[in-house]
Write a structure and sequence with these properties.
22 helices, 8-stranded parallel barrel, 3-stranded antiparallel beta sheet, alpha/beta
């Protein structure tokens, strides 16, 4: 069986000439003909070279791998029961799904509280994030969930002001934080500021804590989409030169005369801006945690990616030893920005395997009496069934599921519907619900009452789109939990899942479906 698709993808705007006859190992057409203009990835690379490494068109898309892993979360089913209830009285009039409590509290003092058990783990300096930030920030704040400002936002802001290598004034970061803070309700949710190597050198987190009222910061080791630093495309020569002067890796070098001439005559149209890879050591990690606590950080998170198992062990061990409040572990294949396409498909530990190892390592620490931080898992989660499975796979340690592409999609659709309403250009499959936002968005009535008419009318439709998507996830998750008779998140356990294949069982330690409840069934039948 071939797990990967090679040499043609919508992500790289390529396709095979003989779409029905492809050599599985190479992805090439079975007959590669002299005279073909080069529609496949090999052909396009023959004239655009390194540009074809990245998904396209940059700035208006999110991207994730299309590799089919041998085991994924669809290889598990959620177990329901006809007996009892946990977290509520076992009474049919009381144990109804609207009564399921989805609130989660975590952190060393349990002081971080979310209405729902999910978080957007990190959306940084890409255009897709910046252009949809209103919807993401306001929608997340209204819903009472977490939103993380990802890497390079300050460094990419042309209006940022630096003094002696440190940030002293910024427009974009300030705007992103304020949009969230202005719409936060009753202390639920959190805005988190993440930092990579460049952000740390610029002291972005210290600035956010001191000047912008941020209480939570996150150290970043990586993500599930790639094992190098973040990158974006730059279409403007002056901006490329500015970023080069700020210390970023910019390719090709925008200060070289020959490169400038090539750009101006149209030989290429975009520069690449790359971030540096971090070099993790326990000493530097401990030092940075101490620096951030002294700077006033109330909570410190750590985000890591799909690195090899030894790095996962380092992540959870360091998080335990230095009292980190949340550790997010992101499985291979994810991504929201411009990760190299082949890298996104072919590197790292896939989600089920990575999350299974995470549970194993967390349990080892817990069995030794060590502190286990709250955990979040990420890697392709989109709907309530997957959220349940992610929480159950890592129970009782996993408190949150991280999602990025799906929330961005919801915010983008909401924004697009708002624009279509204004232009009176609603497609028929949306117009059948109405032609006003109060008619189209099913949560509009609820929000109008809660916020008041004047405030509701200011809310962008991107935010309503995200809020409405979250409302769907919440109701769906409540229904699944009710079916398992789990009426609060702390009652979800690994035996709420069953493996559908022997491979899934061997990898995860979750019982094969015909072996679930084996001891209990013997007792029941032995009457």
């Amino acid at each position: 069986m071939t797990y990967s698709r090679i040499n043609s993808s919508a992500a790289t705007l390529t396709k095979n000439r003989t779409e029905e006859s492809i050599t599985p190992s190479s992805g090439m057409c079975v007959t590669c003909v002299d005279g073909c203009i080069g529609m496949c990835e090999i052909g396009k690379s023959a004239y655009r070279g390194h540009e074809v490494i990245y998904p396209q068109p940059f700035g208006v898309i999110t991207t994730a791998a299309e590799k089919k892993y041998p085991v994924d979360y669809s290889h598990f089913n959620i177990m329901g029961t006809a007996v009892g209830a946990q977290g509520i009285e076992a009474d049919s009039d009381k144990a109804i799904f609207p009564a399921v409590n989805l609130e989660v509290k975590f952190g060393r003092d349990n002081g971080v509280k979310f209405r729902y058990p999910w978080i957007i783990p990190g959306i940084g300096s890409t255009n897709i994030a910046k252009n949809n930030w209103e919807g993401l920030a306001i929608g997340s704040a209204l819903a009472g969930t977490g939103l993380t400002i990802g890497e390079n936002v300050v460094g990419m802001d042309v209006e940022s002001v630096f003094k002696e290598g440190r940030i002293v004034e910024t427009v974009d970061l300030k705007r992103r934080i304020k949009l969230y803070q202005d719409h936060q309700r009753d202390g639920y949710g959190a805005i988190i500021v993440q930092a990579n190597v460049e952000d740390t050198r610029l002291r972005v987190q210290e600035y956010a804590i001191d000047k912008l009222g941020v209480e939570i910061v996150e150290l970043k080791w990586g993500q599930g989409a790639k094992d190098i630093g973040g990158e974006v495309k730059i279409k403007d020569l002056k901006k490329a030169q500015l970023l080069y002067e700020r210390g970023y890796i910019v390719l090709p070098n925008p200060t070289e005369p020959e490169v400038i001439k090539a750009f101006e005559r149209g030989a290429f149209k975009e520069f690449e801006r790359h971030s540096r890879v971090g070099m993790v050591t326990e000493e530097s990690f401990a030092q940075r945690v101490e620096e951030l606590r002294k700077a006033g950080a109330k909570y410190i998170f750590l985000k890591t990616g799909a690195y090899r198992p030894a790095d996962l062990a380092r992540g959870i061990a360091f998080a335990s030893k230095y009292d980190i409040d949340l550790l997010t572990v992101d499985g291979a294949g994810g991504g929201t920005g411009m990760s190299p396409w082949r890298m996104m498909n072919e590197w790292g530990v896939p989600p089920v395997e990575l999350h299974s190892l995470l549970y194993e390592y967390a349990k080892k620490l817990a069995d030794k009496g060590k502190h286990v931080p709250a955990l979040a898992v990420a890697g392709g989660f989109t709907f309530e069934d997957q959220i349940y499975k992610g929480l159950a796979m890592g129970a009782p340690f996993v408190k949150l599921v991280g999602m990025a592409r799906a929330p961005i999609a919801a915010a983008m659709v909401g924004k697009t519907i708002g624009r279509a309403i204004e232009e009176n250009q609603l497609p028929v499959y949306v117009e059948r619900f109405g032609n006003k936002k109060d008619e189209i968005f099913v949560t509009a009535g609820e929000l109008r009452v809660e916020l008041g008419a004047a405030e509701f009318d200011k809310i962008p439709t991107g935010a309503i789109g995200l809020y409405t998507y979250y409302e769907r996830l919440a109701q769906g998750l409540r229904q699944l939990m009710c079916g398992s008779r789990k009426f609060a998140l702390e009652h979800i356990s690994r035996d709420d899942l069953a493996s559908l294949t022997r491979d899934a069982s061997a990898i995860s330690g979750i019982s094969y479906i015909t072996e679930v409840d084996k001891e209990e069934t013997e007792e029941i039948l032995d009457y």
